[in-house]
Amino acid sequence: MTQDDVYRTVGYQLKRVQAALRAAMDAALRAHGLTTPQYACLEMLGQRPELSNAELARGAFVTRQSMNVVLRNLEEAGLVSRPATAPSGRALPTRLTEAGERVLEAARADVLAVERRMTAGLDRAQAEVLLRQLDAMAEALAGSDG
User: Fold this and answer.
1) What is the CA radius of gyration of the chain?
2) At 33, which CATH number?
3) Please, which of 20, 58, 70, 104 could form a disulfide with 42 given CB 3.0 to 4.6 Å?
4) Beta strand residue intervals within 18-108, DSSP E
């Protein structure tokens, strides 16, 4: 494989898109005082309140330690609330506050605009095929040793 061939691999193009998407999301979310992992956390809590730190970390593609920092910052900003002690076990159930719901709604509109910009060259059928293909790729790699 030549160096030019590397640029024509699916993996390289996926990483290129991921980097461009992250940069565009970071820029859009900056206006809301959020980072991309913070937005992902708010989005997940908006759909499934009281997810555990581990579940939030997996969903946001960060470590549990990083998610602790994300949650602390969101709590300090008044966007999420967590009890001082766990009602059972060790997990502290996290919920969006009213302010968190408002910020999420505003940020979501900007993130969806980024997604529309990214997929503007695709019609609905092409977008559905791409989603299925990306899902199949992720499933093919899930649990593999490399």
Assistant:
1) 18
2) 1.10.10.10
3) 104
4) 80-81, 95-96
The total number of structural domains that make up the chain = 1
Query: Does 125 map to a domain?
Result: no
pTM: 0.85
- Token pair recorded at residue 53: 């730190």
Q: Is residue 138 part of a domain?
A: no
Angle between helices 36-47 and 53-60 (to 10 degrees): 120
Residue 4 zone, left/alpha/beta (φ > 0; ψ -120 to 50; rest): alpha
How wide is the angle at C-alpha 129 spanned by C-alphas 116 and 127, nearest 5°?
A: 10
Q: What is the distance between the alpha carbons of residues 104 and 49, in angstroms, rounded to a whole number?
A: 13
The domain of 96 spans: 3-120
Q: What mean pLDDT is predicted for residues 60-69?
A: 94
Residue 21 lies in a domain: yes
What is the rounded (10 degree) CA torsion for 83, 30, 60, 89?
Answer: -10
